[in-house]
């Protein structure tokens, strides 16, 4: 690509990091349920090459418009899932740098990062099977929704780690799990079903980690810290969910091409869900998450949008 065609990125402020204080080094299990997630992840490891029947994808059996739509949908999921390739290592480093953080999340997150890499590999292979991965969104304005700089945010010394976990390891990973379940429920292609079965099993652990960690930490939060966590959750919904990051139909002004592709993919059974099913998944999940957060002393408001009912 010629230099003049590269889209300029805004400059970012300098990042202030924590100072490492490694000792005393605590290695005892203090969060056994999270350690169990680590052990389960190791025992259940799978191989994207060996454990998916790629021959059953048979993309040649679908008309060209469906193949093009599937190519775009699975490309978008590559863009989304690849966030973890930088974000999870940064989250591990943050846990390691902050004094007094438990060892169990540090171990667990190493398996999460491997699973995220497998998801990216599978999504990319699906996009390639239907004609080749698309390099970027159709509309330049949609790109900003994906450039979230999560690796910088979690490494910043001013970022409350528990608030970050609440927004991006509990709420967000749980939402991704429910959407993946909706896609699986409407999938009819055996290869796509196989991919989603593995992804769902992994994301069940990813979401469980976030909620378990919040439950372990909640008793020690101050009033101000609870308000910080609530604010981070609201920012995530406003700046990510409502801008079509997970569901492009929420922001057709940014992601019309992606929303139209998702609808075609859902109809073809290639790993999407009808808009109504995604809306139900989002609304039901947000309601359940609000209840769980209230039990931890976090008040999450209802969210209004002209794209769907309040959630």
From TrEMBL:
InterPro entries assigned: Ferritin-like_SF, RNR-like
GO MF entries: oxidoreductase activity
Entry superkingdom: Bacteria
Stated name of the protein: Ferritin-like domain-containing protein
